[in-house]
Amino acid sequence: MQSNEQYYVPSGSYWPMVGSVGMAAMLGGFASSLHDNSIGTGMMVLGLGIILFMVFGWMGQVVQESEAGQYNQQVDKSFRIGMGWFIFSEVMFFAAFFGALFYAREFSVPWLAGEGNNAWTGQLLWPEFKAVWPLIEMPNPEVFAVPSGLIHAWEIPAINTMLLLASGATLTWAHWALLNNKREQIIYGLMATITLGVVFLALQVAEYGEAYGHLNLKMTSGIYGSTFFMLTGFHGLHVTLGTIMLIVILMRVIRGHFNAENHFGFEAVAWYWHFVDVVWLGLFIYVYWLV
Amino acid sequence: MIKLVVLGLFLFILYSLGSALYYMMNDGAGSHRMLRALAMRIGASIVLFAFMMFAFWMGWIRPDGAF
Predict the structure, then answer these.
(1) Which of A49, A154, A167, B12 is most buried (CB neighbours < 10 A)?
(2) What are the residues whose beta carbons fall under 8 Å from the beta carbon of A218, sequence distance 6 or more?
(3) With contact defined as beta carbons under 8 Å apart, do B10 and A289 qualify?
């Protein structure tokens, strides 16, 4: 790189405009669908389609420009900073839902049973109510889907924990291979990681089937059901996204992209996968195991 | 005591993950420090999971399920 190459001015791009139109259509469509507007759902799906088109088009262009050697250190740094903000938003997202669960378990549910200075609250609202977590004996069960059982931590969740931990190990193996320019090992490592991710998702689907089909544990099962599905569901969505990103990285590695010195795409996806893995560990401990 | 061990290990995992992020942001491409931090993170996670399974097997912890 030349020393005077401090600034990078990209050429004009229509992708941000396409993305804005997609987001506006999706959000507007969603809002309309909540009002039972007939075109709302269609508009929402169309918006999602435009966003996906934008993601493929824009990212494809970035990959092409990167492979053509058009990017300098400045651009590399800007990608890292962008990833940093994305990660910050992800951490805040999960912190909010873990926080909601923590607040319900440690504060609001005990208060309803009269803890702290809330003796009268307990007496006036539901005098018979006992604060136990998981909260599946509701004071007014007629308005909730009351579960007949829970997902046992040492069954599917423990298997899923092992799968994700194994996937973290195979990904680290692939990462080592990348730094040592062993392309075949990167491919095997990534394939193993993707397979483990897919099996994890399949087991999650089976678990949800068990919860909804047999245990009557649903989103409408009070604060336990809603926090359970909110956290595990969004985590599953992140594993899905991570798996898609790993597949893209695998295809790029097969095509000969990346080398030991230049592979930010790989690093970002690898870190994301490790992050999703740690979120799962938090879920396993605090949601499934209830310690 | 068990909770403290679990919490301590989990905090260490968060620390390794966080330091991997720091190295990714600051080292530039091909950071060996990032990879070492991630390897430490996965090692600690396996230890934590093994510890929890062991504690369950020993009867030290049990899921608080009502069933």
Answers:
(1) A167
(2) A145, A147, A211, A212, A225, A229
(3) no
By C-alpha distance, the chain B residue nearest A80 is B25
Contact (CB, 8 A) for B24 and B34? yes
**Tokens read off for A182:** 């062993």
**Residues B18, A238: Cα–Cα separation, whole Å:** 19
> Do B41 and A165 form a contact (C-beta atoms < 8 A)?
no
Distance CA A255, CA A16 (A): 27
CA dihedral B33, B35, B36, B41 (to 10 degrees): 130
Task: State how far Cα A260 lies from the chain centre.
Answer: 28
Return the number of other C-beta atoms located less than 10 Å from residue A162's C-beta: 15
Window 10-29 of B: residues touching A by CB (8 A cutoff) are 10, 13-14, 17, 20-21, 24-25, 28-29
Domains observed in chain A: 16-70 (no CATH), 71-288 (1.20.120.80)
- Res A291: pLDDT: 60
pLDDT tens per residue across span A104-134:
999 999 998 888 888 888 888 888 888 888 8
Q: Is A172 close to B13, i.e. CB distance below 8 A?
A: no
What number is the ipTM of this complex? 0.93
